[in-house]
Design brief:
The protein is of the alpha+beta class. It is built from five helices and four strands; from the N terminus they run αααααββββ. It has one domain: Nuclear Transport Factor 2, Chain: A, CATH 3.10.450. A four-stranded antiparallel β-sheet has the order 1-2-3-4. It is globular, with a radius of gyration of 15 Å.
Length: 147
């Protein structure tokens, strides 16, 4: 699949955000209230994606993500990603990690949650949700990836 030239910068920005957020060392212990709040935000987001409410998922995401990925691009990339794997069959939360910095991203708190998932077209997948704690003290999704 070729990406139109006008969206190349968006793809580069998406990759840069992913590297910035995934790079940190995740050695801090996660407080139960942080894990609970982050899990709730991640699962609400995943429900929106599973329900094909892509615009709603983008609107509920972090300001960092919305500043890097335009709604029009999101509305193309997420349906394409999900169509490659098909409908969700099963999802189970796995590992969680927290960090107070991410390379190239503003200082703050970041939470990474991984889910072992299965889809119609991909029996074994890992969904990764990266959340950031925003200024209003609410955890919001800053990245979503399927491997």
């Amino acid at each position: 699949m070729l990406i139109p030239k006008k969206y190349h910068i968006h793809v580069v920005a998406l990759i840069a955000v992913a590297v910035m957020i995934l790079y940190p060392s995740f050695s801090k212990k996660i407080e139960p209230h942080i894990l609970a709040a982050g899990t709730e935000a991640a699962e609400d987001f995943l429900h929106q994606i599973d329900s094909k409410k892509y615009e709603e998922s983008w609107e509920s995401s972090s300001s960092l993500m919305r500043s890097k990925i335009f709604l029009e691009v999101w509305n193309q990339q997420i349906p394409a990603m999900r169509s490659r794997v098909g409908n969700l069959i099963n999802r189970k939360q796995g590992s969680a990690a927290v960090s107070d910095w991410a390379e190239g991203a503003p200082d703050g708190q970041y939470l990474t949650l991984k889910y072992a998932s299965s889809f119609e077209k991909k029996a074994e997948a890992t969904e990764t949700i990266i959340l950031s704690l925003e200024d209003d003290n609410v955890w919001r999704v800053a990245g979503y990836f399927i491997k």
